[in-house]
Amino acid sequence: MATAARNKKSARRRQLEAAINYPIDWLEERSGLIGGLRYFLFRKVPGDTGWWHTLGSATLTAFLVQALTGVILAMYYKPDPQNAYQSIQHITNDLTLGWLVRGMHKWGASVFIILMFFHMARVFLFGAYKYPRELNWIIGVTLLAVGMLEGFTGYLLPWDQTAYWATVVGINLNGTAPFLGPFLADFLRGGGEIGTETLARFYSMHMLLIPGLIFALIGLHLYLVIRLGVSSPPWSREAAGSDYDADEPATNGRSGLTQPAARSGWRRNGGDDV
Amino acid sequence: MTEPQHGDRPHSPGPSLYPIGFAAGVACILVGLIINPMVIVPIGVVIAVVCGFLWARDATQEFRVEPVGAVEPERGGPRESTDAPAVPAHQGEAAMAELDTGERFPRSRFLEGATLGFGAVIGGLVTVPAVGFMIVPAFKGQGYPKVDLGPLDNFTPGQWFVTKFFMHPDAGEVSHRTAYIRNNGQLNGKPSFTIISNRCAHLGCPVQPNGPVQDNQKKDINLPKGQRVTMIPAIPAGGYGCPCHGGQYDVEGNRVSGPPVRALDRYDFAIVDGHLILGTPYSVSHVKGEGKDALIYKYKLTGPGEHVDGWEQILYPLQPPH
Predict the structure, then answer these.
(1) What is the spatial distance between Cα A11 and Cα A273, in angstroms, rounded to a whole number?
(2) Mean pLDDT lowest for which of A206-210, B65-69, B114-118, B315-319?
(3) Angle at which helices A210-228 and A55-73 cross, to 10°
(4) Which residues of B touch A159 (CB under 8 A)?
(5) Of B195, B186, B185, B192, the residue nearest B162 (C-alpha)
(6) Is residue A42 part of a domain?
(7) Interface of A with B in 88-127 (CB under 8 A)
(8) Is residue A194 in a domain?
(9) What angle do CA A8, A10, A15 make, to 5 degrees?
(10) Which residue in chain A is spatially nearest to B174 when comparing CA positions?
């Protein structure tokens, strides 16, 4: 039936399709990017995944919002003690939509942390951290720690009384760690006391060092998700080892593991009509 | 498919303690950089170099002693015809046995080592200064300046003053500090002052006097070099309290209750040309007595929340230079 439909295509329509496909094929032939994108996006997932499985991508989205709004806030923010507070007031009160972008960044930070915890809870309660996904759990916990560090360094930047004293307390908390704590505190402050260097230091960590680390860790995290596939929920019949789908048995009889389709060009049917 | 298992063949280099010695040497260098670069660093360098050399000698021993293997002549003759079904490339025997050229240092291995080695050297040349620049300035030249707090006459004997001043007048508001100062009168013919830091010994919040602060008697004193001292008389009858987590201190700064781990820090002082000069801060475990007769148990300045006495002090053996 599909063949019959294809034969009915007019010559004009085939020309149009060829014109659309040409640049895509050109790119695919030279880079394999389209096939890679398909491999990334059109993966097989267990049939009984649901809304719970969207928490990870929700966290990723929250982080991307932070990255975008942060880059734009950095265009107006001045990270030195004389100007930091005034520049934030300027962003909030004077600049067009500044209040909105700052608000997105401020509240989005909490959303990001909260979603990380929800995502973590989902993975824990579904047992999705078990073999072979232990390493991805470890990377996730590292992401959580680094994400909290991002929150800590960002909290100082408004440079008001709350920011200042919360950071005093936070740094001194780090200072009470045994043995190396006092050195860690001095490293964070850039000296023995919070001073002119501390703010620039936190700004650099907040917008360059830690986001770079987060991007790298998210890359690893996603790589492992794609390599290992999405896990079934614990109530899945598939996970229980029943013959849920006789045509496509789970890889090596391992419950919950799905194998992504092989890399085979970007089009499902191999492009037979070009 | 049979994977080679661990234990099929012995590890080529036997276990050695030299790597640990090497790591200890490096650790010694790093610690020495902070404590005593002139003495401890060279010791660390010697340990690291000696252990590194022995380690390298140890690890390459087998390789160096290995005799030159004989080259097996290539066999001629026609290949067997392949009637058997094709075997995937990653299974079965290798199509061609690996060449054993008998070289002690094959060219490819030399190039591999050279690439990795030069990569490491170049990476190190770039990374070490950058990381050093990130870390070292936080630990160098961190002392406390001497701060002029104005003429002695401003400090009425027996009266507490909430005294605000700039640690570094050039740095502006961020260096604003507060101390609670009382002129104790004369001790053995010399002036005696109690100067208590307002930094809570729990986590560094500013402690407040538990008692009236007489804002209407505030006095501003302008001094050279942009220094501006503000003095407000206060009656901290109930000692001091911290707004953050509720730590309470008595009027001499001893911990009374709450989470602080010791008494409030104090400052040294000097009298120069009739002015009170603030010296370096130090930490205090506790104070016995009051006023000029107080016996102060004094320690090197330590961060808030860190014990200076009791068994917990072993958790904080080293302090960064201040």
Answers:
(1) 12
(2) B65-69
(3) 160
(4) none
(5) B195
(6) no
(7) none
(8) yes
(9) 130
(10) A195
Distance in Å, alpha carbon of A228 to nearest chain B alpha carbon: 22
Q: Does A176 touch chain B (CB under 8 A)?
A: yes
CB distance A57 to A71 below 8 Å: no
Choose among A81, A176, A187: nearest Cβ to B138.
A187
For residues B145 and B168, give the distance between their C-alpha atoms in angstroms, rounded to a whole number.
8
The CATH number for A224's domain is 1.20.810.10
Question: In which region does residue B258 sit, left (phi positive, over 0), alpha (psi from -120 to 50) or beta (all else)?
Answer: left
| pTM of structure | 0.75
Long-range residue pairs from A233-238, CB within 8 A, at least 24 positions apart, any chain: A233/A46, A233/A48, A233/A49, A233/A50, A233/A52, A233/A126, A234/A126, A234/A127, A235/A48, A236/A46, A236/A48, A237/A48, A238/A46, A238/A47, A238/A48
Residue pair B304/A175 in contact (Cβ under 8 Å)? The answer is yes
Calpha distance A145→A185 (Å, rounded): 17
Tokens 């391992």 correspond to A254
Mean pLDDT of B216-244: 94
Whether residue A192 and residue B305 make contact (CB cut-off 8 A), yes or no, is no
- Bridging pattern class, strands B266-272 and B240-241: unpaired
Domains held by chain A: number: 1
Q: Which residue of B has its CA nearest to A179?
A: B316
Cβ-Cβ contacts under 8 Å, B265 against chain A: none
Instruction: Please check the confidence at residue B199 and state whether its pLDDT lies above 70.
Output: yes
Q: What is the mean pLDDT of chain B?
A: 86
**Is residue A75 included in any domain, yes or no?**
yes
**What count of CB pairs under 8 Å joins A to B?**
80
Q: How far is B191 from chain A (nearest CA, A)?
A: 29
Q: Are B269 and B280 in contact (CB under 8 A)?
A: no
**Residue B230 pairs with which residues in a beta bridge?**
B164, B220
Q: Which residue from A185, A187, A196 is facing B174, i.e. has the nearest CB?
A: A196
Provide the pLDDT confidence category of residue B171 given band limits of 50, 70 and 90: confident
User: What does the pLDDT look like over A80-103, one tens digit per residue?
Assistant: 999 999 999 999 999 999 999 999
Amino acid at A103: G
Q: How many CB atoms lie within 10 A of CB A136?
A: 20
Residues A187, B303: C-beta atoms closer than 8 Å: no
**Helix A161-175 with A134-155: angle, nearest 10 deg:** 130
CB of A80 within 8 Å of any CB in chain B? Answer: no
Give the residue numbers spanning the domain of A83: 50-236
**Contact (CB, 8 A) for B196 and B180:** yes
Give a yes or no: residue A111 inside a domain: yes
CB A264 within 8 A of CB A34: no
Residues of chain B in contact with residue A82, where contact means CB-CB under 8 angstroms, are 172
Phi, psi of B164, rounded to the nearest 5 degrees: -110, 140
Q: Which residue has the tokens 């870390």?
A: B135
Q: Is there a contact between A172 and B320 if contact means CB atoms under 8 Å apart?
A: no
* Helix A210-228 and helix A134-155, axial crossing angle in degrees, nearest 10: 160
| Residue A214 sits at the chain B interface (C-beta within 8 Å) | no
Domains of chain B: 16-63+128-142 (no CATH), 147-313 (2.102.10.10)
**How many residues are there in chain B?**
322
For residues A244 and A233, is the Cβ–Cβ distance under 8 A?
no
